Amino acid sequence: MKKTLSFILFSFASLLLAACHNQPLQTISVPQDQVVKLYGDTDGAFIGKADAPITMVEIYSYDCRYCREDAALIEQFAKDHPNVRIVFKPFMAFGEHTRTLPQYAALAAGRQGAFAPMHRELMSTHRVMSLKNIHYFARHLKLDMGKFNAALKDPTIAKRIQENTALMDALNIDAIPTVIVTQTRLLKDPSLTGQIPQYVQVGFLSNDLLVHLVDQVAKDGKIE
Question: Above pLDDT 70, what percent of the chain?
Answer without folding.
Answer: 88
